Every structure is written in structure tokens, then in C-alpha cells.
């Protein structure tokens, strides 16, 4: 099987805290892969190690066979990344940012300008093309971040919560773009807390809890006949149903 992303035994400690114990999973090429897990489960840490933004204490990550640390240029050329809390050049307008990024990627002036325009158009950011990134809303920042991830035409997209803070119409647009990308042979890995969305768009899913993969595979296999939300709660939500609100609340 051709894999877009292979994570083997990834581990990361922050001081005494083990954020990721052992994350091993394979994202088949051409798949739409969802990563879910409770707050603090280790999703962002795992995705950051997967794309070379954070050095693991153990384990390895390969993008289309290229080791992210041993062969970073080859690995990174094939991936577009939307990291958590993306830092953007705040004093550039949306259009300037995209043209600048495209030029950094080595595209000529004309190609950079046309790619920037197409992405602003498709992500409905043309009205804000002259607005400084500093003045973008949270959802607009997600969209311009996604545009920078798409700019160089990668084969794999790794997106940390791409739908967070995005309005429903923009979410539909982003979904459409990602589905077209996968239909054209691209691969997507995204993290999300929205089970219904993951269920609708992803064909594979991994559940991470406490820095470990507790279930992974095709959506049907992981769901095992239940809804993804029910399976999620069954796998990682022990105790949630018995926790009560404070007695003084609304009394
Ligand atoms: N730089 C850091 N220093 C110390 N601890 C960290 C650091 N980054 C993450 N952690 C800890 O590692 C654990 C995993 O965090 P991570 O952000 O990967 O979780 P997550 O699954 O993405 O969570 P969420 O769904 O809330 O975004 C958490 O306990 C977090 O507090």
C-alpha cells in the first residue's frame, strides 16, 4: 500500500509531562483521514512532529516515504500544513502574504499573482485582500492559513482543526475544496472535535487518547456499527456521563 504519511512510535515529553507516548499510524495515499481525541490528547503535538515542526524524542515520520528529519526538503515539498496557532506576517495584506509565500516557494511573479488571486477568490477573501492580516478575524486567519498550505500544490495536506471558528458557509467551501483535492488524488489529514463532520468527510479515522492511538482504520471499522460520537465516548469518555454540574449552578 502506498502511504502518504507514516508515523512510527512517535513520542514527546515536555519536562515531566509526556504529551505523546506512542503514536503509530499509516495514512493511505488518497485518503481523507480524521484525527480525533479529547482536549490534551496529543493531536497537535503528533501533527507537529508529523510535518517536521517539532522534533520527536523518539520515533519517525515519513511523507510519501521521505523521512521528515533525514530528508526534510523532499518531505516538506510534498506537504501543505495548517498548524495550530499559525503565526502570520501581520503587517501584510492577505494578497501580499500569498504572493510573498508563493515567491518564497520559488514561483515567478505572474504565477505567484495568479495563484494568490485564485485562492483569495475560492476562499471568499477577495473583499479582504487589502486588509492587513493583523485585522483578520479568527476564521479569516484560518482561511488565509489554508490558502498558504495550498499554494504550492502539495500532495498531502495536514490541517490542525481547519474548521475551528469558521462560519458554516466558509466551512462548506473548505469542505468542497478538500473533497475536490482528494478526488483529484490528494491526501488530507485533519484534526477536529466535530464528530459529525469527520463522519461526513473522512474515510479513515484515528482516535488518540492520552498520547496513544486507541483505534485507527477505515471509518466503518472504527465506528463498528455505532455513530462516531458514541464510539468516541465509549473509547475515551469514561466517567463523562456520571459527572454532575456544581450544585450551586442555576439553583
Ligand atoms: N509546549 C508545551 N509545553 C508543555 N506541555 C505541552 C506543550 N505542548 C503541549 N503540551 C501538553 O501536551 C499535552 C497534549 O497537548 P496537545 O496540544 O497535543 O493536545 P490536543 O490533543 O491537540 O488538545 P486540544 O484538542 O485541546 O487542542 C497537553 O497535556 C498539553 O498541556
TrEMBL record:
Molecular-function GO terms, alphabetical: ATP binding; ATP hydrolysis activity
Family matches, as Gene3D superfamilies: P-loop containing nucleotide triphosphate hydrolases (3.40.50.300)
SUPFAM superfamilies: P-loop containing nucleoside triphosphate hydrolases
InterPro entries the UniProt entry points to: AAA+_ATPase, ABC_transporter-like_ATP-bd, P-loop_NTPase
The keyword Zinc is assigned to this record: no
Pfam families: ABC_tran (PF00005)
Domain ABC transporter, first and last residues per copy: 5-235
Record keywords: ATP-binding, Nucleotide-binding, Transport
CDD domains: ABC_DR_subfamily_A
Family, similarity comment: Belongs to the ABC transporter superfamily.
PANTHER family given in the database record: ABC TRANSPORTER RELATED (PTHR43335:SF11), ABC TRANSPORTER, ATP-BINDING PROTEIN (PTHR43335)
Annotated protein name in UniProt: ABC-2 type transport system ATP-binding protein
